[in-house]
Specification:
single chain; about 200 residues; alpha/beta; 5 strands
């Protein structure tokens, strides 16, 4: 995207270690943009996406604090493809524009690398055209189930169900970082890619 900076898309399934990997890129000097945080930002009260979501899905998805209740909204769209697409039509352009603005700001202020951290990224997706490299962080199914169970205090069966509901694999990544062996192995992989690109 830019001659001044390398733009890295970092994706991965739930509990694969994407956030840990993003932190390691940050430690090396990259600016990290969290697509989930951007999604929350563009749907805050007063933002255009908030008003459109409220009109489309009703007051039932607004929490007592006046903000979008992501749990309720998720339940509303989770099993309804039409509603999910309607939500994406509202939020994706806003998310893309905000991330593009943050990337531009980071590059203008001298960042050598910008990492866009998102659960799902693809070349043809909403952010795909921005990135120079698309990286998938992956871990074994058993390792992800173990991490979900520990993080969310679930038994194995519930953790397995949650993993199944959230998994989505990206077919067009450039690199896979395997993250089943622990933090030092992950750090070494990140360091190898950093040297290769920068």
């Amino acid at each position: 995207m830019s001659e001044k900076a390398v733009i890295i898309g970092l994706c991965g399934n739930v509990c694969a270690g994407k956030t840990a990997a993003a932190g390691m890129f940050r430690d090396l000097g990259a600016r990290v943009i969290d697509a989930d945080e951007v999604s929350r930002f563009v749907t805050k009260p007063g933002k255009p996406a908030f008003e459109r979501i409220a009109r489309r899905f009703g007051s039932g998805v607004i929490g007592a604090d006046g903000e979008i209740d992501r749990g309720k909204l998720g339940s509303e769209v989770f099993s309804d493809e039409k509603k999910r697409r309607a939500l994406e039509a509202i939020t994706h352009p806003e998310i893309r524009d905000e991330i593009a603005a943050r990337v531009e700001k980071a590059v203008s202020s001298g960042a050598r690398a910008v990492v866009i951290e998102a659960a799902l990224l693809s070349r043809g997706g909403v952010l795909g055209g921005m990135v120079d490299h698309l990286v998938l962080v992956e871990a074994s199914e058993e390792k992800k189930i173990e991490r979900i169970a520990e993080r969310d205090k679930l038994d194995e069966a519930e953790a397995r169900k949650r993993l199944k509901s959230q998994e989505g694999r990206n077919p067009d990544y450039d690199f896979v970082i395997e993250n089943s062996a622990g933090m030092e192995s992950l750090r070494a992989e990140i360091g190898r890619l950093w040297k290769k690109w920068l």
